[in-house]
From TrEMBL:
Disordered, as annotated region: 1-22
Name of the molecule in the record: ParA family protein
Boundaries of every AAA domain copy: 38-212
Lineage: Bacteria, Bacillati, Actinomycetota, Actinomycetes, Micrococcales
Family: Belongs to the ParA family.
One Pfam family per UniProt: AAA_31
Function of the protein: May play a role in septum formation.
Amino acid sequence: MARAGQNTPLEGIDFGPTGRIQTEFPEPAPLSEHGPARIISLCNQKGGVGKTTTTISMGAALAAYGRRVLAVDFDPQGALSAGLGVVAHDTPTIYDLLLGHTKDPHEAIVSTKVPGLDLIPANIDLSAAEVHLVGEVAREQILASVLRKVSAEYDVILVDCQPSLGLLTVNALTASHGVLIPLECEFFALRGVALLIETIDKVRDRLNPAIKLDGILATMYDSRTLHSREVLERVVEAFGDSVLETVIGRTVKFPDASVAGVPITDFAPEHQAAKAYRQLARELVARGAVA
Ligand SMILES: Nc1ncnc2c1ncn2[C@@H]1O[C@H](COP(=O)(O)OP(=O)(O)OP(=O)(O)O)[C@@H](O)[C@H]1O
Ligand SMILES: [Mg+2]
């Protein structure tokens, strides 16, 4: 019996870190036409679990497979914008789109150094958005109406949420077809996930019946520690096949790539972590979460 965390070569079969037989996900076929986009929120109210890193790295990997990707920075910290080398000083941001200061999302979209990967940036202004939006009509649906205007031009839109379950995150979930939950492989990882799933269920009941859990992504996994392996085993016990086969290892290459303002897939394309994010991109295509 293979257990999560054991990489047992049983009669030549490779069990991955999640304890399942490892699948070779094929390279995605090129798309002959683009859009409409599938919108995926990267969501976990716990901070520092890899939401932004995953948005950048997976976005770049999907773009390298010929997908047209729009990344939306939905965190006032602006880490996604910074990680893609974009500083939004006096250009329109997602805040201006939400508040209606800027009507056309094209005015806020910037291209990044990664071909095929565009960005709607954010800055600290966004921290005031919840207060301003509270009194709006259909306040949970504002991001959805913004993204609808550009959806036809992209294959996938990735919304990098802030670590909270407030109105902005509810907007992200309401706009999304799917949600991807990055989960750090450490002791408190599972804390709060029940609340997150409850929030997704409420959004499904009240606002967005079609939303799906696209997957739970284990991040910062260290195969050398029993602790990491045990946490992953618990996560697989709790969520079964919702846990993606791809697991992201812990490595200092990520902070290094962030400083350089480029995705790991460009910073160190042959590094294990870059390979893992390319595999994640292929797995999501294989699962039908991305065209
Ligand atoms: N697999 C990894 N191995 C090592 N460090 C990582 C890994 N993934 C991300 N990091 C680092 O951990 C920190 C937090 O990652 P990241 O910003 O992606 O998390 P987040 O969930 O977006 O955080 P927040 O909730 O604050 O938005 C960053 O410094 C990042 O470089
Ligand atoms: Mg983040």
